[in-house]
Design a protein that fits this description.
The chain has 15 helices and six strands. It has helices spanning 3-13, 20-26, 34-54, 78-87, 104-117, 123-126, 134-151, 161-168, 171-183, 215-253, 257-313, 318-343, 352-372, 381-391, 400-420; strands at residues 59-60, 91-93, 131-133, 156-160, 187-193, 197-204. The strands form two sheets. It has a three-stranded antiparallel sheet with strand order 1-3-2. The longest helix has 57 residues, at 257-313. Keywords: Coiled coil. InterPro entries: Snf7_fam. Residues 390-421 are annotated as: Disordered.
């Protein structure tokens, strides 16, 4: 980790980090009762978690940790903070992690022993070992499982230990992640001997329980390890071909034809070896693909059997299911056509002058309609009755005939008022 980058991040997270008065009080050792320094403890605990998460670190060394150094001044309370984090389960020592290569019975025995004995750890012992930050370990384990699930759609997958370590950013990190997954029943470590010692990991990428290691898992691990070795050989051969090619060109430019011929022969031999290696790699990958396809076919077959059983239980025929699917597809297609039509609407191609002309025509039409539909003295009771009946007013108790004659009565009443005036 870049110490300058860490210090810059801390200054962003803690605006008063460079304040001498605040820092002096913050860097003092804890004294008194816990409620006296509880806020300081929470500050340092949260800051340790923030820095570790920001830089992707979940294994820290308390002795060599210089994150919080301020010109030679380091917080005197960090050891106490780490001890409390250990007692509260936020950190564990690397030596306390379960061995992923041990069996379930031995791991269970160790867990029971720790629960019964509850070994206490002193502040000095905390500084003697590296510490694993448990919340970040869980996050990293979840990320590894998600990455593996993106390349596999079966419930489990087998990877070599080399591949697993590359996902965890190191061997120590991989050991911690594997220990956590094994303790959760989400991973098994595989060790086989096929002329050489081969190690791998079987990981569950679904919520289902992880099955035990099978002979097929061991065969897949052997094929995967063979693939890695062939890929490594191809990289070496590519380097040899490139070196021989450059040497041959340099020899030709300098006029050394014999030397150029020797490099050309080496280039030809390297290319032939590369073709053989590529052929072997393709064959191994073909076998792996066949195994993967067979597992996928098995899953599809089981899904079809489950679907047939459900259809039989709820008494739905295959024709009805087919009709439902066709109706759903038609609905989806019509929705897509509507969205496509809305997206392709040529609003940007419309000319502003054409819009103004259309508005003028609409205004003229509205004026002509208003001039034709103006209320006058020649309106009859029948036309009013028809208009009111179309409105379907249900809140009034008057009949349509009463509504039709109402305007006439109002007109007569108005005349009488005027005469009286």
């Amino acid at each position: 980790m870049d110490s300058d980058a860490v210090k810059e991040f801390i200054r962003r997270e803690v605006p008063d980090w460079d304040d001498e008065v605040v820092s002096t009080a913050r860097f003092k050792a804890f004294s008194g009762q816990r409620y006296d320094w509880e806020l300081k403890f929470q500050f340092w605990r949260d800051l340790i978690l923030k820095v570790s998460r920001q830089f992707g670190v979940f294994i820290i060394d308390p002795v060599q940790n210089a994150w919080f150094d301020r010109g030679g001044m380091t917080p005197l309370c960090v050891d106490h903070v780490l001890l409390l984090m250990h007692s509260e389960g936020d950190v564990v020592r690397v030596s306390d992690l379960d061995d992923p290569g041990s069996g379930r019975i031995s791991r269970l025995f160790r867990t029971v022993r720790n629960l019964v004995a509850q070994p206490s750890v002193t502040q000095g012992e905390i500084l003697e070992d590296k510490l694993v930050i448990v919340p970040l370990l869980k996050e990293k384990a979840a990320d590894v499982v998600n990455i593996l699930s993106e390349g596999h759609w079966t419930s489990t997958c087998v990877v070599t230990l080399k591949k697993f370590r590359s996902l965890c950013s190191g061997s120590n990190e991989a050991s911690a992640v594997l220990s956590h997954l094994s303790g959760c029943g989400k991973a098994h470590k595989i060790s086989i001997n096929r002329g050489e010692s081969i190690e791998g990991v079987k990981v569950s990428i679904s919520k289902a329980a992880l099955p035990s290691i099978s002979n097929l898992d061991c065969d897949i691990l052997h094929l995967l390890r063979t693939t890695e070795k062939l890929q490594d050989q191809l990289e070496v051969m590519d380097q040899r071909c490139e070196t021989s090619k450059k040497s041959a060109l340099l020899s030709l430019k300098s006029g050394h034809k014999q030397v150029a011929l020797r490099h050309a022969r080496q280039l030809k031999l390297a290319n032939e070896s590369r073709e053989k290696c590529t052929s072997l790699l393709n064959r191994v990958e073909e076998v792996l693909n066949t195994i993967t396809d067979s597992e996928s076919t098995k899953m599809v077959s089981e899904a079809i059997k489950t679907g047939a059983k459900v259809m039989k239980d709820i008494k739905i025929s295959a024709d009805e299911v087919h009709d439902y699917l066709e109706e759903l597809e038609e609905t989806i297609e019509s929705q897509k056509e509507v969205e496509k039509a809305l997206e392709s609407a040529p609003y940007s191609d419309i000319d502003d002058e054409n819009i103004e002309e259309e508005l003028l025509e609409l205004e003229m039409e509205l004026e002509s309609e208003n001039s034709q539909v103006r209320p006058g003295t020649s309106d009859t009771a029948d036309s009013l009755t028809e208009m009111l009946s179309e409105l379907k007013l249900g809140n009034t108790k008057q009949t349509l005939e009463e509504q039709a004659t109402e305007p006439v009565r109002m007109k007569d009443t108005g005349k009488k008022i005027l005469e009286a005036a």
